[in-house]
Amino acid sequence: MADAAGYSLYHFCRVFNGIVHHTPYDYLMRRRLSESARVMIETDRKIIDVAFEYQFNSPETYSRAFKRMFGMPPYRWRNQRAVDERLWMPRLTLEYIQHINKGDYLKPVLVEREALRVMGLMSLVQDRMVIPHLWEILTQELGRAESASALREYYGIAWYPRGWERDGFFYMVAVETKSLDGPHPALVVKVIPSLTYARFVHKGPRRDLELTLDYIYQTWLPQSDMRLSHPLEIEYYGRDFSDHKEPEWEIYIPIK
Amino acid sequence: MEPRIIKKGQITLVGFSFFGDPFAESGGWTEENEIGRLWNRFTIYLTDHRDRIKHIKDDACAYEVHVESEETASKGHREIFVGVEVERLEDIPVEMLVKILPPAQYAVFTLNGEQITSDWSRMIWEWMSGAGYESAYEYGFQLCDQRFKGLDNLEGSELDVYVPVKPADNVPTDGNR
Prior knowledge:
The complex is a heterodimer of chains A (256) and B (177).
Chain A: H1 2-5, H2 9-20, H3 24-42, H4 47-53, H5 59-70, H6 74-80, H7 94-100, E1 109-113, E2 116-125, H8 131-145, E3 154-159, H9 164-167, E4 169-176, E5 188-192, E6 195-203, H10 209-223, E7 232-238, E8 248-254
Helix pairs in contact in A: 3-5
Chain B: E1 4-8, E2 11-20, H1 34-49, E3 62-68, H2 72-75, E4 78-85, E5 97-101, E6 104-112, H3 120-131, E7 133-135, E8 139-144, E9 158-167
Antiparallel strand pairs in B: 1-6, 2-4, 2-5, 3-4, 3-8, 6-9, 7-9, 8-9
């Protein structure tokens, strides 16, 4: 790769790591493992054949590397047929590299949050494109309920149940309920206990959120000493969830 | 069919929710639509993690709440919530949701056998307009207790449907319709 780029090996590794946040070797391994993981689910080929095809010296080496990346050995991944795709590393794109190099805002801060009680609408989501529609409906419902809109704190909460890649994940558009009085039958309430989170700041339009999440799950998480404590993501928008000129919001990932 | 009219205080439910068009793939009483999937998810959760839900009022009673929105008529979007009633809003598992229904007056219709899977919503609306009531909130629920034996045993099953009602603003009187 260094030869192809016309750099010395040392310089290439340093530049690559600085931009991609993975060493070339780590990136190559993760891409091989990700592609092989897809083959494991989509075909019935033997694990040993898949291991050799993706340049692993033995099934044992492959199994160890696989478990390190996906948290489970290849045979279990295959048996489940539905796996956490957030951990799968896609091919790098220029858009992604530009996104994660816009600044150092992807460095998280560890925070403890007190229990949070929110009220809103939850739907099963296959595609994040439907989420703005949920916001519209929530706004209508809240408009009917009361008028203290200036005091609302807005949250988007994603919950990834087992098998979410196949069936979809749950997404809740919500407001903190402190300012709402009495029951509101059209909405649901969610109570999230006090947890420890890695807090990231996402900058950029909503369509780039996936890039930030890719970075969190595929680069930051494996390089940290942390694990996810719940299959949950919280987006905190403050008092305005709409896309403004330079949108910026906080993303909380529960960790342990 | 004459309903009973009763008053109930606030109902706090813990369970799972779906918002969208539950009948997009398949209508009616089947496991092949979002309502069936919601029940499956809830039943499996209760089987595996019953101990995580504290303060359940009655293990034998489960609720299926339907909430209509402004888009129900045009797009079929509504919320379905399946859950159990709890005494208070404490110790809620992080993976679950809460639905709070306000104190209300309800018309309670008891359905038997084949009636359960019939189109009873129309019958309820007809009763309401004839009896001088109107809907008090845009939701209603079905209460499944030990009398409901399952879809494969409708013959011996009973189910109560609760509709929040209030006296209609314009109660029809003789000569005024």
